Amino acid sequence: MTSHESGPLAGARVATRLPAGDLDRARRFYAGTLGLEPVDERPGGLLYRCQGVDFVVFQSAGTSPGTFTQMAFEVPDLEAAVAELKRRGVVFEDVDLPGLRTRDGIADIEGNYPSKGARGERGAWFRDSEGNLLGIGQPIH
Q1: pLDDT block averages, 10 residues each, the chain of length 141
Q2: What superfamily in CATH does domain 16-140 come from?
């Protein structure tokens, strides 16, 4: 299989799953802080949709280690998104690693993921109410 479009999952939709120790607390965070409302809900989870892409926050006894980005949002204006989220009470992570350092919550990232067709990206990270590490990115063209 040499084509990226062959194989049993090539036509599948991808959806992120984020664990929540307290689903009601998570719902309040995603609504009140991020401004997102579920498009569907069941007793054990909430389905959200952003620009046609789904993610689920589900009730779980397990927790995320929060040591890596579990889901990211791509925005056209990172500084504006970070400023608005700070205004809503979001605390952004400070990162100080070789090649990756945040200033005022935002990092300039050399290079980029190959699929974005950009020369770089700016990024910021924060945790949701359940400790999941979420990112926000803006490709640099």
Answers
A1: 70 91 97 97 95 95 86 95 96 89 88 64 94 93 78
A2: 2,3-Dihydroxybiphenyl 1,2-Dioxygenase, domain 1 (3.10.180.10)
The DSSP code sequence of 22-82 is: -HHHHHHIIIIIT----SEEETTEEEEEETTEEEEEEE-SS----SS--EEEE-S-HHHHH
Alpha carbon distance 118, 139 (integer Å): 6
Domain ranges of the chain: 16-140
Cα separation of 116 and 106, whole Å? 19
